[in-house]
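Table S7 (text form). Paired inputs.
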Amino acid sequence: MHSIRQATHATIALCAMTAGLAASASGAWAQASHRTSWQGVYIGGHVGGTVGSISPATTSGFVAGAHIGVNGQFDRVILGIEADAGATSNGNSGLGNKFRQGNNGSMRGRIGYSFDRVLVFGTGGAAVSNYAYKTTLGSMSRMRLGTVIGGGAEVLLTENVVVRGELLHYNFSSSSFANIGGPSSVNPKNNTLRAGMHYKF
């Protein structure tokens, strides 16, 4: 009987201690989350690489640009809008023909979830790019609309400085370059992996 009473007291003490530790951890997590704010306007830059296709050929190149956006925070859920613009060397050349993508940009919505100082997000929206095709018979350029979808993660280094990594998939509408001896349907698609940094106001 004495042993049962001791075990009972020990169990109660252990439960009380566990509850206390859980409450302390919960409070510390809540304080950390309260201190971490992703809300506000931000502006920054990014660089990376891209690979894709203009069937049946493949393309590759570098990308660089700037982005600006705004986030709204609802507890751990982050909703935002972002616009970016930049340039790329993405292209392919061979057999006297040359394809080259030029300036590009996008307007995307974003949704993410905050793990304190780490934000995981998905993004998608509309994209625009100009690209040119050159053959021995001449050259043509086109501006085309498309879609972009992707995701990534951000890390809050300080209250205002954020670094990120993201993967984006682009799909642009097709064009014909048949009148200069090129293909009758060029539908550029590419996957872009880029790293960036921005300042949050």
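Next pair, protein 2 of 2.
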Amino acid sequence: MPYFYFDYYYLILVVPVLIASMIIQAKLKSTYSRFSAIGNMRGITGAQAAHIVLNYYGVTGVQIVPGSGTLTDHYDPRRKVIVLSEGVYNGSSIAAVGVACHEAGHAAQHAEGYLPIKIRNTILPVCNIGSTLSMPLLLVGLFIGYTPLVWIGIGLFGFTALFQFATLPVEFNASNRAINVIEANGILSYEEATGAKKVLKAAALTYVAALAVSVANLLRLIFRFGGRRRR
């Protein structure tokens, strides 16, 4: 079949971005590991720091619970639960405080009805559908030689990139909220806060990398398949 040949677009567009993404992931793990080994002078745990952020923004009804794994921390808005990984919940490292405050920042966003959160949540259902149907529709369109169906598949895949783009302001804002509370309440010293910023910046770059990978894959699909004519 003529459609399946060596994918130069993947090599040129996607592979470099994937390599950069892996470097960024390695940088996050390295930075997190470094500042996980340094305790804060006040001995504040991640769970305590998250409580301080919630109180600062007047957020009530949110639980903070321990979870498993590493870098698995997240906020579940449906259950109103902040899940902190083992090293963050009871940990008193600089990294633990930064990560915990970041997740509490997400809880504050939801409580306030932060607009970018609403936009991202609106896109999410379409993104889930797109991730499931985009490639099957594209392949069927190629097989039967029906270009509009190919473009529908590409368009659905595009929602993945759109979702990643909508995620960026949410993540950056949560980190800004975290740092603001850390500095306003003196949770960390100036030097310690600088370390927390490095951890959160490294984490934020992973979302930028995810967007770059999605855009690269979208461009690859457009350049490789978008211009095909109906047979």
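Residues 8-226 form one domain.
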